[in-house]
Specification:
It is built from 24 helices and 25 strands. It has 658 residues and is of the alpha/beta class. The strands form six sheets. It has a six-stranded parallel beta sheet. Strand 20, helix 17 and strand 21 form a beta-alpha-beta unit. The longest helix has 22 residues. It binds thiamine diphosphate (TPP) and magnesium ion. Magnesium ion binds next to helix 19. The site of magnesium ion has 8 residues, from helix 19.
């Protein structure tokens, strides 16, 4: 079949499927893009032909499969949207992203890092300079005097889990097969990049028909090796004060029911990470809230004394381990259940390399059974008697602590702070008024910490905080992809549609609000809550904690007297900005008005933005934890010297080897 490389690429992508648990779906459900020279005559031409022919042309296997195209507004934004989509689909599907040569392509590098860090599949198709190099340097080409094959797209290599450049048509098939392999490998997945020189995209070649036959990629659920399971069980059986840490892997594996069954069978308390929140409902008797720097004091107290930590689907970021100060029991041991051996090996753990659902089910079975099969007689082998369970005293201890914490969260939700409301009250209003299935989206600023500590999540897909890369600007773009996935789920009858609420700080909004326009143009309804506090509440508080007095963290005019950015407030109107981009806007001043606006926004059919101003200095409960941010060892400022003393005290509690 004679086609250009780009036409072959599109035809191939449209017939790839993924399968897990017997359910098949398109692996690449669509393509985001922004055209320029580099892809306008290649991938764009192929997408045009694909869309024009979708109802008329037939291939041997039936109708030409359609690859829907979505015009984004910023290339970083379209990668965020793709990540939102794939995360919402539990990594069963990945969007493709096509970008023009040079800045269009390198704009995707940040998104690639975000995808790879969060272990979320996305297919990136940056454009590259001519493989023939005859016209070089082309517009937007970086020349490297050390070697003429170096391109800006090489910047994707360290942030991609797979990178290939198709310099010849003959290389396309193996590049694409490699790309699909990595996208669908739960242990290896992340950003997958296939760099496409612009001349090669337009070059014709005679392709074998079988390249375009329907192909199913089976997403594995590796089961634990019996010997590894026995080792894990031995450690867990000896545990007197165990704590389970549930990470994003639990959700991607759809292991929520297996997690609850494990917790109910063993009584082991379950703490969660940012990516794992929602894996267990906040009011489950075993749920103890977030663990780590921004976790709940309940989980953090358990972590402090635990003798065994069972990490499931977690990569143990510094926020989760409180920069390795969370686990203070001198004899603490780790058992890590993870599909990736890379993560399973962390903290010197007993490794249980397996799919989270399969691993948890196996652990529940093994711990529920008799302690030692060899010494059991038929009469004494009642598994309920000999199964592992934490003591009633242990359960009662964290249960009581949890009840106290629930009251503290209730108070934070209803602080009645003035004159401007507090952010915790905004969270309270949202938590109380959103449907438990509505998706809350956040990524950076003071909100992720407040959310991990205070948000009550009751559904596995309702809490979507991107905290692997914590990238300002993810919220609106990510929400776009999340809503697209929710709509696709509803259209396919997988589940009912969900409302999506992006909670956006003013800093984050100013970095990347443009995908609002994409949502408006596509008729995709988003809800936004813009939290205006005139700068960085997060970094302001952090700056103060390191003795730097919030230097450079407020959005203010430059003050002619001080020479600093500490003049009057700026005339920025983000509500007007959102309206100018096509959203309906509701400006509120009080929590009562906010509550009313949330109802209106939920009920609306158009993208709606609620704008509220909050007090960046309002109090937030303490996680009773720590995060390692080095403080200047020598300083003229007294505030810095004091902060250094406190830093050194905390630093002494760090256990770098576990
Ligand atoms: C792209 C990017 N740049 C810088 C940072 C560092 N950073 C983290 S939070 C933050 C401020 C966020 O401000 P805003 O969105 O207004 O949230 P607030 O802190 O006020 O809650 C900055 C600059 C980041 N996380 N991402
Ligand atoms: Mg702010």
């Amino acid at each position: 079949m004679r086609l250009t490389v780009a036409q072959a690429l599109v035809r191939f992508l449209a017939v790839q499927y993924s399968e897990r648990d017997g359910v098949e779906q398109r692996l690449i459900p669509g393509c985001f893009g922004i055209f320029g020279h580099g892809n306008v005559a290649g991938v764009a031409q192929a997408l045009l032909e694909n869309s024009a022919s979708r109802d008329s042309q037939h291939t041997e296997s039936g109708r030409t499969a359609h690859l829907p195209y979505h015009l984004a507004r910023n290339e970083q934004g379209m990668v965020h949207a793709s990540v939102g989509y794939a995360r919402m689909r539990n990594r069963l599907q990945a969007m493709a992203c096509t970008a023009s040569i040079g800045p269009g392509s390198t704009n995707m590098v940040t998104g690639a890092a975000l995808a790879t860090i969060n272990r979320i599949p996305v297919l990136l198709l940056p454009s590259d300079f001519f493989a023939t190099r005859v016209a070089n340097p082309v517009l937007q080409e970086l020349e490297d005097p050390r070697g003429y094959d170096v391109s800006v797209n090489d910047a994707f290599r360290p942030v991609s889990r797979f990178f290939d450049r198709v310099d010849r048509p003959e290389q396309l098939a193996s590049a694409l097969l490699g790309a699909m392999r990595v996208l669908t490998d739960p242990a290896a997945t992340g950003a997958v990049t296939v760099s496409l020189p612009q001349d090669v995209q337009a070059e014709a070649y005679d392709w074998p028909e079988e390249l375009f036959s329907r192909r199913v990629w089976h997403i594995a659920r590796p089961v634990p090796e019996p010997a590894a399971l026995a080792r894990a069980v031995e450690v867990l059986r000896a545990a007197e004060r165990p704590l389970l840490v549930a990470g994003g892997g639990v959700i991607y594996s759809e292991a929520g029911a297996a997690l609850r069954a494990f917790a109910e069978a063993t009584g082991i308390p379950v703490a969660d990470t940012q990516a794992g929140k929602g894996a267990i409902a906040w009011d489950h008797p075993c749920a103890v809230g977030g663990v780590g720097s921004t976790g709940s004091p309940v989980a953090n107290a358990l972590a402090r004394d635990a003798d065994v930590i069972l990490g499931v689907g977690t990569r143990y970021s510094d926020f989760t381990t409180a920069s390795r100060s969370a686990f203070q029991n001198p004899d603490v041991r780790f058992v890590n259940l993870n599909v990736a051996s890379f993560d399973a090996a962390k903290l010197g753990a007993t490794m249980l390399v397996a799919d989270a659902r399969e691993g948890l089910t196996a652990l529940t079975g093994a711990l529920g059974g008799p302690r030692n099969l060899a010494t059991q007689t038929a009469e004494s082998s009642d598994s309920r008697e000999s199964g592992y369970r934490v003591t009633a005293e242990y359960s009662a201890g964290f249960g009581a602590h949890r009840d106290e914490w629930t009251k503290i969260v209730d108070r934070a939700y209803h602080l009645d702070h003035g004159p401007l409301p507090s952010q915790t009250e905004v969270l309270g209003a949202l938590n109380e008024l959103l449907d438990p299935r509505d998706v809350l989206v956040q990524a950076a600023g003071s909100l992720p910490g407040d959310l991990q500590m205070l948000w009550r999540a009751a559904d596995e897909k309702a809490y979507h905080v991107e905290y692997g890369y914590s990238c300002m600007g993810y919220e609106i773009a990510g929400a776009l992809g999340i809503k697209m996935a929710a709509m696709a789920n509803a259209a396919a009858g997988r589940e009912a549609d969900r409302e999506v609420f992006a909670l956006v700080g003013d800093g984050s909004y100013l970095m990347m609000a443009q995908e609002l326009v994409t949502a408006v143009s596509e008729g995709i309804k988003l809800n936004l809550v813009i939290v205006q506090n005139h700068g960085f509440a997060s970094i302001g508080a952090l700056s103060e904690s390191v003795g730097s007095q919030r230097f450079g963290t407020a959005y203010r005019y430059r003050n002619a007297d001080t020479g600093q950015l500490d003049g009057g407030p700026l005339p920025v109107d983000l509500a007007a900005n959102a309206a100018s981009l096509g959203a309906d806007v509701i400006k509120v001043r009080t929590i009562a008005e906010l509550r009313e606006a949330i109802g209106r926004s939920r009920a609306a059919t158009r993208t709606t933005a609620i704008h509220i101003e909050t007090d960046p200095l309002a109090p937030v409960p303490s996680s009773e934890s720590w995060w390692d941010v080095p403080v200047a060892e020598v300083a003229a400022l007294d505030s810095t010297q004091q902060a250094r003393k406190s830093y050194e005290t905390h630093k002494a509690s760090q256990r770098p080897l576990i």
